[in-house]
Design a protein that fits this description.
The chain is an alpha+beta fold and 486 residues long. It folds into four domains: 95 residues, PAS domain (Beta-Lactamase); 129 residues, 2-Layer Sandwich (Beta-Lactamase); 75 residues; 128 residues, Histidine kinase-like ATPase, C-terminal domain (Heat Shock Protein 90), CATH 3.30.565.10. Helices cover 49% and strands 23% of the residues. It is built from 14 helices and 15 strands. The strands form three sheets. It has a five-stranded antiparallel sheet with strand order 2-1-5-4-3. Helix 10 runs antiparallel to helix 11 and helix 12 packs parallel to helix 13.
Length: 486
């Protein structure tokens, strides 16, 4: 019995010690709780599961204008807007079941002023609810301002092909149009919602750059850029993105608008045009190389059939003189004549190939070309020029005009069998007009020809954004008209 008594006494002593320790720990927890409670920058309230106030910190008192004693006499419903609570009743049952509720509430200050609060409520202990509240009244005012602005634009927003998203200063979505809904679903894989943070819809790698752009817009800048999104088939969708600040016409920026246009078709068209341009450039290069090859063949043929024959004759005459070992005046004279002819032929061939003198004007160059044609061909060629002597033409353009005239007159001599040709050049309103007319046998421009003379002319004119017109038919000569801006 004695042993039992001792045991019971020891147990009682231990229970007493345990109770004291628990009280000390509870007291310490309560002190820490109150310290954190009062130091929090957010407003905090504690209620029971009927909504009666059990505690509140100084921030909450300041938010609603009540003293602590006044709040402890109230139910939280007294701070809520009547119409708002009807539309969105309090759900103490969900909180009692352990759910956390995050929502926005329209509440009322002691003086009757409306306050918008963002609240996070959850079960606290067994019989209490802890609510952390934040005053978002200014944000709601900005939202209302933005909503009024965008309401006037909804007719445009809902019918345009442009994607529009309106955001507040915190980058939360205020409004969007149907195209934005489709973009979010197709490109971002999300369903867009009001009040959500826009950047959350984008991939982590895109968020930093987007945030940088948006901060610049909120500082007053307008941003514009292009971006692509890869597709499942390996292609890309391209978008032109514009961001601009929203204000009332003053320096206060309330938010920003993002406008996105689908430019995929435009990009494809530009690429197609670029590919066409590359192919055209390749054609031009091939035509130039072919022209160079033809010109080499022509020079080689000229040297072989003409100049080489003249030199062969001279060599033959000199050989006869050497064999007979007597002076043959007739052979010497013939040799001299052939040498003079060879010199003239070489000079004519050289002039056709050498770039004309830069200091000479276009009029002087074509006059010299016409003079040589009249001296060495049976075609009577006239030249009419109404370009002022002081007119300044780019050297490359001047050379190309000269080569065009040279090319076409060669075509006339080779193929047209013309007795007359007229070259006319004039200028008006920044455009040079060139026409070359002959009375030769003509041709059908619709029939593809083996020669590349006309192709070379068209390529030269096209490189200066000019235009070429050809009028001809069998038996009626040819009229070539060219217009080149300078």
């Amino acid at each position: 019995m004695k042993q039992t008594a001792n045991t019971d006494g020891e147990k009682a002593s231990c229970d007493k010690m345990t109770t004291v320790e628990e009280k000390q720990q509870n007291s310490l927890c309560t002190e820490n709780y109150h310290f954190l409670f009062e130091q929090a920058t957010d407003a905090i309230m504690v209620t029971d599961f009927k909504g009666n106030f059990k505690n509140a910190n100084a921030s909450l008192c300041a938010m609603f204008g009540y003293t602590m004693e006044e709040l402890l006499e109230l139910n939280v419903k007294a701070l809520l807007d009547e119409e708002h609570i009807k539309a969105k009743p309090l759900r103490f049952d969900l909180l009692a079941a352990g759910e956390t509720i995050f929502n926005e509430r329209k509440m009322v200050h002691k003086n009757g002023t409306v306050i918008y609060v963002e609240a996070n409520a959850k079960k606290f202990m067994d019989d209490r609810i802890l609510v952390i509240a934040r005053d978002i009244t200014e944000r709601k005012k900005v939202e209302q301002t933005l909503q009024k602005s965008e309401a006037n634009l909804h007719t445009i927003f809902d019918t345009t092909d442009t994607i529009y998203v309106l955001m507040d200063h915190d980058l939360r979505i205020i409004s969007y149009n149907p195209r934005a809904l489709a973009f979010a679903k197709n490109e971002l894989g999300h369903s867009i919602e009001i009040s959500k943070y826009l950047l959350d819809y984008f991939s982590p790698e895109k968020q930093p750059q987007l945030l940088l752009y948006m901060k610049e817009v909120l500082a007053g800048r307008h941003i514009s850029y292009e971006v692509s999104y890869p597709q499942a088939d390996g292609s890309f969708n391209w978008y032109h993105v514009r961001m601009f600040p929203i204000s009332k016409g003053d320096n206060n920026i309330h938010g920003l608008m993002m406008a996105v246009s689908d430019i995929t078709e435009k990009k494809l068209l530009v690429r197609e045009l670029l590919d066409q341009k590359v192919q055209e450039q390749k054609k031009i290069i091939r035509a130039v190389l072919q022209a160079q090859e033809i010109e080499r063949n022509r020079i080689g043929q000229e040297l072989h059939d003409n100049i080489n024959q003249l030199l062969t004759c001279i060599n033959m005459y000199l050989g006869i003189i050497g064999k007979e070992k007597i002076y043959r005046k007739d052979l010497v004279e013939k040799s001299k004549e052939l040498i003079d002819t060879t010199i003239r032929e070489i000079r004519l061939l050289s002039r056709q190939q050498v770039t004309p003198q830069k200091q000479a004007g276009i009029k002087e160059l074509i006059e010299e070309l016409t003079k040589r044609l009249n001296e060495n061909t049976v075609t009577n060629t006239k030249f009419e020029c109404s370009i002022a002597g002081h007119l300044s033409i780019d050297e490359d353009l001047k050379l190309n005009i000269y080569r065009i005239v040279q090319e076409q007159t060669n075509n006339i001599l080779k193929y047209a069998a013309a007795s007359r040709a007229t070259i006319t050049i004039s200028e008006n309103n920044g455009t040079i007009y060139l026409s070359i007319i002959d009375n030769g046998i003509g041709f059908d421009p619709a029939i593809k020809r083996n020669g590349i003379g006309i192709s070379n002319i068209i390529n030269r004119v096209g490189s200066y954004n000019g235009e070429v017109g050809i009028e001809s038919s069998p038996g009626n000569g040819c009229k070539l008209e060219i217009r080149i801006p300078y």
